[in-house]
Hints:
Blueprint: E1 6-7, E2 24-30, E3 33-39, E4 52-53, H1 56-77, E5 84-89, E6 94-99, H2 101-106, H3 108-112, H4 114-132, E7 138-143, E8 146-150, H5 156-186, H6 192-197, H7 200-210, H8 213-233
Antiparallel strand pairs: 1-4, 2-3, 5-6, 6-8, 7-8
Helix pairs in contact: 1-5, 4-5, 4-7
Amino acid sequence: MNGERYIDLHSLNIVNLLGLEPSKKYQEEIDGWLFNVNEYIGEFYLDTNNMLAYTESNFEKLKISNTLSIEQLKYSELYNKLFFKVENSLSGLECVVSMGNDYLLEHIDVFANKQFEFILELYVALHIKNVISKFNVKTSFNHPFIFRIELCNTSYDDAYHIIEEIRKINVEISEKIPKLFAAVQVQSCKIDRIMKNVHLSDFLRTLYNYEDLNALIEDLESLIDILSKFEKLS
Length: 234
């Protein structure tokens, strides 16, 4: 535009080009990536506030955003029977991993069991955190089965590998859930007391931050030991 190159990370200006006929169409390779290029002549408005200057680092962000969008499309068209869906958030450069509606509807009996749902949330959260901890990215887990992965400060290669790892976990967990549910139905799960006495979402976030249930148990045991010493001194 006006001899300058910009990056529209989330194609927010595409609506301004709808209905316009390109004056020229061709393909161009930019930094090893092949793009379809449309040229337009005439009066139309593009909001440069929603664009990034074309730089090496911003082009890296475009590659990540494009890969996330392709993955989102795959989950819509090919992987919609899997447990998770992956979305490209419009908030910066963020990958949102959440439970797919199709999977929920097909396994409604599984998620109607609150004990199993709670155990499954713990199981999934620890698996996700284990993968993410291999990479230098920030993540948050604020709602059941919703994980937000911040990718704005990572490389395209790392982002690509993160998405690949998430997909592997997705396939594995999707296949395991019915078997896990059947096993839990047979066994007696003595977790009524913890479900009754703790705020489950807070407990899940705490465990997600710890990454390891054993580490949390060790710290609680240390806390019990300290409190017992306090009791002896009183």
